[in-house]
Amino acid sequence: MPATVENPDVLQREPAAQRLIRELCSIITQYLDSKQVYEVIQAAHYAVEAHSGQMRKSGEAYICHPLAVAIILAEMRMDTKGIMAGLLHDVLEDTGTPKLRLIDDFGGEIAEMVDGVSKLSRLDSKSRAQAQAENMRKMFLAMGRDLRVIVVKLSDRLHNMRTIKAMSQEAQRRIAKETLEIYAPIANRLGMNQIRLELEDLGFKALYPMRYRVLKQALKDARGRRKEVMAPMEIVIRDRFQTSGIECTIAGREKHLYSIYKKMRSKKLSFTEIYDVYAFRVLTRELDDCYRSLGVVHGLYKPVPEKFKDYIAVQKANGYQSLHTVVIGSYGLPVEFQIRTNEMHTRSETGIAAHWAYKSDDQDNQDEKTFAHEWLRGILEIQDHTGGDPMEFIDHLKVDLFPDEIYLFTPQGGIIKLPRGATVVDFAYAVHTDLGNSSVSARINRHLAPLHTQLENGQTVEVITTDWAKPNPVWLNYVVTAKARAGIRAYLRNFKQKEAVSLGRNLLERELTEQGSSLAEIPESDLSKCLHAMGLDSLTELLEAIGLGNRMPFLVAKRLSQPESQAGIKLDNHSSSEFEQPVTSVPLLIKGSEGVVVNMAKCCRPIPGDCIVGFFHPGRGIVVHRCECHTASSVQKKQGNWLDVEWQSNLNDQEFTIELQLELLNQRGALAKLAFVIASAGSNIENISVRNEDGVISSDVVLLTVKDRIHLAQVMRKIKQLPVVTKLFRVSA
Ligand code: MN
Prior knowledge:
With about 725 residues, this protein is α+β, with helices and mostly antiparallel strands. It is built from 29 helices and 21 strands. It is globular. The chain starts with 7 loop residues before the first helix and ends with a strand.
């Protein structure tokens, strides 16, 4: 029986609950009418009753958790039913109340929301990761029916993160990791900035307690210095806005700990390099005032041209709107400005959460929901493609959750948003799956470009297609969007096995003929030995693998026709002792190369982290080029000899040679300084050659060794800091 508003019995037993219910009431009375408030209280009492006697790990009464979740929801101005679902969110999972009972007491809408948030009962045969993935998928399906499910779930997670200290170390780490990898990005996707920032900071604190403490202290120490710089600047800015007559509020802005940490990691910058970027936020009343304010700021300080972003005219994928600009402020320091209306600001804080509380003819609010729905539709489409594999779904979801995006144009002027690093293939699939499936190349700003080309903001992309084109498995190496990945995989999966087998047979026979043999001539014993070595059960499986592009016909033919004398070819670990180690062999650098000699192309000198593509040269093994290498793209035109290659994750600090071209001022000791800096960055110089000298500037080519791209970036940054260096770039054929 549902509890009533007057329920002294229950409340007397739980004094903490009584206090929280009062707090909840004081918030919801600000925006709900008395009937709605009554309904919420009724749900609260129902939850108190249902959870009565249960404790949380922290020792407090369990009911405090759903009440705290409801308060978080109310602070975001969630509607009545959403708050009720928050109050009841653990009733199904934790109290044994059946769903039918909940439907009877509160109606289907609320019961469905609660069900969407509840975990599936864990099946013992499944791993934790798999169970987690299945729950996530279930939640997304429920979200597809009602977006409030995710708002409730995020509030639930936020309160769990606030009280995570009560959990074991291991559980803390697991929950924090999931929060950072999935829930915070989802909040970001839905424009719920406030929740996102808190989730991130709490997740960071639980996952890396030491780093969190160190950074927090550093932030505290830096604050005083920061004030000294910001305060006088703020006075000047306020003054200028006053005379311009624009009504607005101006505030200094500080980066959050986790954002600082992320930047330090991804850009390899020090704390001061990041923290010393000063930032202001200007909030205006009207939209027009945003652009006028921008004028004021640019009139006061010189803007850095490429840093200006108009997210008001072109919104971010999560609906975020604001003008961003960077100017050179006092003392020559870069200063960031974010300029937006109060309303845009509120929306950027709560995102879709506030939607339901307002009447639905509010246009801006509609936009928000459309964005969320559009995103969700994409996710659910992926869910269809993944054919019910929850782990694959999670992979796709993660890829989708980091929206560092670029904007591109179709030839008709349509705007396509893609994540940074997206290629022509991603673009084609974003427009339409059929376009992706039949693409062969593209015109980028009317210039012909290959499919793997990474796109840049603002480009116009026209995808060129042919009837006979089909997705190539090598595309999976460089696509970055979940949609393209799912599209390619779906195509390859559907590619009929028969077709693959017959194609594989053709390709293999052709190679064998070239090597003076044929499938019929291979002795049964050699064949089964090879199949065993490759971990395959049958010839059909092998042919299928060749037909699908997972194995190279050249390699297989070589193995089959000369199983004992593999010049330059080393088999996998089990059998390598049977063969002599070839002298020219280098350790396996590349996944899928399975014992073939691997050479780094001299024209473009790839290093770990580069996008790479491999080519077969009979007698030379695989030569690895960078994707953007010209030699590579001309070889690629001759079909059939490319190979799907990828760097191995564990390279044991192996060193790779790269080529840098630079211009030096012809000063005494310039080369010595250069050599010193390179050595101190942990790199070895293999050769320096001076190409031309004009008395003032010399143009030099340096061959040096690095471990990977990150190391290279460090070396290049150090070189750039030398005043004698006027130009520096990596040579790429
Ligand atoms: Mn909960």
